[in-house]
Design goal:
The complex is a heterodimer of chains A (337) and B (188). Chain A has one domain. In chain A, strand 1 and strand 2 form a beta hairpin. Chain A is built from twelve helices and two strands; from the N terminus they run H-H-H-H-H-H-E-E-H-H-H-H-H-H. Chain A is 65% helix and 1% strand. With 337 residues, chain A is mainly alpha-helical. Chain B is mostly helical and 188 residues long. Chain B folds into two domains: 79 residues, NADH-ubiquinone/plastoquinone oxidoreductase chain 6, subunit NuoJ (Four Helix Bundle (Hemerythrin (Met), subunit A), Up-down Bundle); 57 residues, no CATH class. Chain B contains seven helices and no strands. In chain B, helix 1 runs antiparallel to helix 2 and helix 2 runs antiparallel to helix 3. The radius of gyration of chain B is 24 Å and the shape is extended. The chains are: A mainly alpha (337), B mainly alpha (188). At the A-B interface, helix 4 of A face helix 2 and helix 3 of B.
Chain lengths: 337, 188
């Protein structure tokens, strides 16, 4: 019980930290891509820049438009941030461990191991839409409302492909617990090719990552906050810490999507060379790579047009994910993959 | 066990309280949100009943998908706050009498259902298996396959109908695709 609570606190703390680190990485990588230096003044190599950002945000005045709905305006960022944290609850990040014999029984490195974990992630993500919709509506501003409508339409459209890609993985693993899905990927083919599902599901991985980028409203699908058209989208009217909460939610959602992609497709904490109890290093490496990929993509690809996004989601990604699911089901049924 | 009982009362209080507030307060957007709260409380109760799959489906389908639709409709129609009507038909004695009768009938029905459910719970206590996802899937696609497929066809018909109704307006005016195309190409 105490070990579980400790892990819960640890996950909460590390998610907060990951958001801060991602802000720094995003600024540094963006600067490098644009041949600039990025933050250099605060601390060595500008490493304390996220801390300075947080202090700056906390010192600002928390503005609220006169015509806004006060309760919903305050509630919306809380819903966004809470959903972002809740989704990570079922994500495992390492094998079972006793912490060098400190504990009598081994505990799994995750907050809760439930047998409907994947559906849980799906459910919490769909609740996250409310934070954005309510922010847009309660601000009583046209930019906010348009941003919120775009964002929710986008999330609802891409959720279908996301779910179909997940279903194909479920068929392969035969379980909805993320821990069991990871364990189904242990070992190797012919002794050297790791049994990661990305090799069986390359199309599924592509669909999952594309839909994941759209779900987290990141470039090249960052319509909700298309600066040229909508100022800042659904959080136009937000300032200070309530703005920071939306920011936090976005970065934590990125971490969650990367962590789930790592667990479902890249074999989680399984990898060569390292012993099982050091598997979390593999997990961290894989998640960091996916997060870097996120940032890299944002500063490389230009934003799509809105109708292109919708056409891509409904006319290309969804049919592709249905075909992927059918082929996977046939493979499981006839070849017993 | 005692911990489960405490959780049951917490979730029950959330469900009942939120549902009451849906009816009592007058802002339609708040009503939608409170209904979501009530569904989440219900999902908690399902978890306590050892049915996590039903709980998650409750959140995905009702709290997630259907209530988003409700919220959109309320927001886009910009539904005003409900005002309490002071005069007219609602104040007359006859409507009040009908309302009271309906309330008594409903209370009686509820009491009957509650006493019945207690005996039902007694009979089903003897070792019924808790349904896992695979068991639910097998039942759905073997025993209830016909009902399942019939429902999906029904939903498909409703969807096609909605698209047809919405498309009728589009065919009279210019379609939006042609407009964007002419914007891109100055000669077109």
């Amino acid at each position: 019980m105490i070990a579980q609570l400790a892990i819960l606190g640890f996950v909460f703390f590390m998610l907060l930290n990951s958001a801060a680190i991602m802000v720094y990485v995003e600024r540094k990588v963006a600067a490098r891509i644009q041949q600039r230096m990025g933050p250099t003044l605060v601390g060595p190599y500008g490493l304390l820049q996220p801390l300075a950002d947080i202090i700056k945000l906390a010192m600002k005045e928390n503005l609220q438009p006169k015509s806004a709905d006060p309760i919903l305006f305050a509630l919306a960022p809380v819903i966004s941030a809470a959903c972002a944290f809740t989704a990570f609850a079922v994500v495992p990040f390492g094998a079972e461990t006793t912490f060098f014999g400190l504990l009598d029984r081994p505990v799994p490195l995750q907050v809760a191991d439930v047998n409907v974990a994947i559906l849980w992630v799906f459910a919490v993500t769909s609740m996250g839409v409310y934070g954005i919709v309510l922010a847009g509506w309660s601000s009583n501003s046209k930019y906010s409302l348009l941003g919120a409508l775009r964002s929710s339409a986008q999330m609802i459209s891409y959720e279908l492909s996301y779910g179909m890609a997940l279903a194909a993985v479920l068929l392969l693993a035969g379980s909805m617990s993320i821990r069991e899905i990871v364990d189904a990927q242990s070992g190797a083919w012919f002794g050297f090719i790791p049994r990661w599902f990305v090799l069986l599901q390359p199309v599924g991985f592509f669909i999952f990552m594309t839909a994941g980028v759209a779900e987290t409203n990141r470039a090249p699908f960052d319509f909700p906050e298309a600066e040229q058209e909508l100022v800042a989208g659904y959080h136009t009217e937000y300032s200070s810490m309530s703005f920071a909460m939306f920011f936090l939610a976005e970065y934590i959602n990125m971490v969650t999507v990367s962590a789930i992609a790592t667990n479902l497709y890249l074999g989680g904490w399984h990898g060569p060379l390292l012993p099982v109890w050091l598997g979390w290093i593999w997990f961290l490496l894989k998640v960091s790579f996916l997060l870097f990929f996120y940032v890299w993509m944002r500063w490389t690809l230009p934003r799509y047009r809105y109708d292109q996004l919708m056409a891509f989601g409904w006319k290309f990604l969804l049919p592709l994910s249905v075909i992927n699911l059918l082929v996977t089901a046939a493979g499981v049924l006839y070849f017993g993959l | 066990m005692a911990f489960n009982l405490v959780l049951f009362y917490i979730f029950a209080a959330i469900t009942v309280g939120a549902t009451l507030l849906v009816v009592v307060q007058s802002n339609p957007v708040y009503s939608v949100l409170l209904l979501i709260g009530s569904f989440i409380g219900l999902a908690g109760l399902y978890v306590l009943l050892d049915a996590p799959f039903v709980a998650v489906i409750q959140i995905i389908v009702y709290a997630g998908a259907i209530m988003v639709l409700f919220l959109f409709v309320v927001m886009l129609l910009n539904a005003p706050r409900e005002e309490i009507v002071q005069s007219g038909m609602l104040e007359s004695g006859a409507t009040r009498a009908i309302g009271a009768l309906l309330a008594i009938a409903f209370a009686g029905e509820l009491a009957w259902a509650l006493t019945r459910s207690r005996t039902l719970a007694m009979t089903s206590a003897g070792g019924r298996p808790s349904y896992s996802v695979s068991q639910i899937g097998q039942r759905l696609f073997q025993e209830y396959a016909f009902a399942f497929e019939a429902t999906s066809i029904l939903i498909l018909v409703a969807m096609v109908g909605a698209v047809t109704l919405a498309g009728r307006h589009l065919s009279k005016e210019r379609r939006p695709e042609s407009r964007t195309r002419s914007l891109q190409d100055p000669n077109g």
